[in-house]
# Entry
Amino acid sequence: MVYQASESRYNEMIYRRCGRSGIKLPAISLGLWYNFGGVDIFENGRAMVRRAFDLGITHFDLANNYGPPSGSAEETFGQILKKDLKPYRNELIISSKAGWEMWPGPYGNFGSRKYLIASLDQSLKKLGIDYVDIFYHHRPDSETPLEETMGALEQIVHSGKALYAGISQYQPDDTLRAAKILRESRTPLLIHQPNYNLFDRWIENGLLDTLSDQGIGCIVFSPLAQGILTDRYLRGIQKDSRAAKPHSYMDKKSITEDKITKVNKLNKIAGERGQSMAQMAISWVLRQPAVTSALVGASKVRHIEDAASALTNLSFSQEELTHIDQILVGQV
Ligand SMILES: NC(=O)c1ccc[n+]([C@@H]2O[C@H](COP(=O)([O-])OP(=O)(O)OC[C@H]3O[C@@H](n4cnc5c(N)ncnc54)[C@H](OP(=O)(O)O)[C@@H]3O)[C@@H](O)[C@H]2O)c1
# Structure
């Protein structure tokens, strides 16, 4: 059956402006780091992407190395585009990245111009498209001059292979430097992609202010701490969870008793707000005006539905925020 996107897809989603740019992103974006690789069931990934788009999630985030095997998530998304979403290409923001190891030898990793340009060419082939909307440098590289890495992003944007440039995991000082270099070359830095969730608040110490000042958007990844900030692990490690997967980067040791005790307490507040734990964790990152979008992952269609429904309750009372902070620092 030919896929026909839901006519109501733009009715419920909230779109937020990405920094001082012309682009608005959905408050919820879908990342394809896990569950879209060659090892996964294609039809499950396809169903998740279709449902996401039907819910107004217009942004899909990839990277050269997502899989496993590395690169296969881009192939999966390319297939989904071909089968279902091609007529909707102009309604989509598709991103990819390079910065982690992709192929052997000195030119398949980090931040050289050679690596970034060759990698994007590979990504476009896998995705079966002429351009991505956003291309990111995936992580800082202290050995390559920032001018070279940003010069590569500039070249990519000017060649039309990406419409916008992004960076991921850069600290505030390097973000400022990157923004300045790109501004001088008339390729404004659209967006930064850092990790942010209830357990990891590093971006509150300067990065969010820098992004606001500079007019750069912010899409935060792993708002659910890879699933820990949901009901997933409240009864131990389930067989089909990320932590149990043989190819998982998620260290089982990161699911500590202390965290689970805190999640149980946070879950009570979520219940009082009429939300699931996952929904409250998503609303919590979106309470920051500088955060444009929460970049979630999912293994099931219902995870995406759960995330989208978080948007019906985005506000927190001061009392709730204080209580949450007290739980996080172990005061209550
Ligand atoms: N720039 C970077 O360096 C970087 C790094 C990491 C990620 N990212 C991006 O961020 C995206 C999201 O990262 P993430 O997958 O770690 O995000 P996440 O949203 O923190 O975790 C997603 C996982 O949480 C579980 N989950 C989601 N919704 C749930 C619900 N309603 N109830 C119960 N469990 C639920 C699922 O785990 P199960 O699979 O166990 O069901 C799902 O796979 C990635 O796909 C990628 O695009 C970027």
Notes: The mean pLDDT is 97.
